[in-house]
Amino acid sequence: EPEVTQTPSHQVTQMGQEVILRCVPISNHLYFYWYRQILGQKVEFLVSFYNNEISEKSEIFDDQFSVERPDGSNFTLKIRSTKLEDSAMYFCASRSLAGKDTDTQYFGPGTRLTVL
Amino acid sequence: AQSVTQLGSHVSVSEGALVLLRCNYSSSVPPYLFWYVQYPNQGLQLLLKYTSAATLVKGINGFEAEFKKSETSFHLTKPSAHMSDAAEYFCAVLYPGYSSASKIIFGSGTRLSIRP
After folding, report:
1. Confidence of residue B42 (pLDDT cuts 50, 70, 90)
2. Among B37, B46, B49, B102, which would you mutate to test the A interface (most chain A Cβ atoms within 10 Å of its Cβ)?
3. Which of A98, A105, A109, B107 could pair covalently with B91 via S-S, beta carbons 3.0-4.6 A apart?
4. How sure is the predictor about A12, in pLDDT bands with cuts at 50, 70 and 90?
5. What gap in Å lies between CA A8 and CA A64, rounded to an integer?
6. CA–CA distance, A114 with A91 (Å, rounded to integer)
7. How far apart are the C-alpha atoms of B62 and B81, rounded to whole Å?
8. A108 CA to chain B: closest CA distance, Å?
9. Which of B96, B103, B108 has its CB closest to that of A56?
10. What's the order of all strands across the beta sheet hosting A19-24?
11. Does residue B96 have a pLDDT over 70?
12. Quick check: A11 and A113 in contact, CB under 8 A?
């Protein structure tokens, strides 16, 4: 069964460093998302992406964040200068626009980002 | 404002007992509703969803949920708990038509523990 994959599973970085989190969405999906979950808190929406542009972003998604689909398979989240409060689990999700499951977002296993 | 509330951050039941996890949403328009499960150190797995068809929805692992518009609820149940059901459960809503991106709004989660 197709699934969303994310790399790395765990990323440790120093405050102020840039990180890139990578996701490979399900191959025929066209809508992509990033969410994050700070330890012990709820999962929060960050950004959605369609047709090579951001569709919607939350107030969390400030100028330090950017997303990109550099090729036909990867979807990345970049944090330019990490802060301690960026430490969280980051989930990628994708959604199809065809078929019977267009309302369902499929989530990857997450990348745990630790900022020291 | 659109929101989803999960009553009880932690629920503990005995193996074989009924599982009931509560979820209420606030909405002026009919939402889509989801339950996701997160096993330790894993990603979010879709348990079941309601998308305006049958109000009683059956999902994986013997779980089901009933959409009650009059109560704005979507409680998750399982007749007989199994040790493998121990996990974090998230109720989530999506408002179709609110935006083309249709971001998911998650509840704060309920940790389900199973006593032997």
Report:
1. confident
2. B102
3. B107
4. very high
5. 20
6. 14
7. 9
8. 6
9. B103
10. A5-7, A19-24, A75-79, A65-68
11. no
12. yes
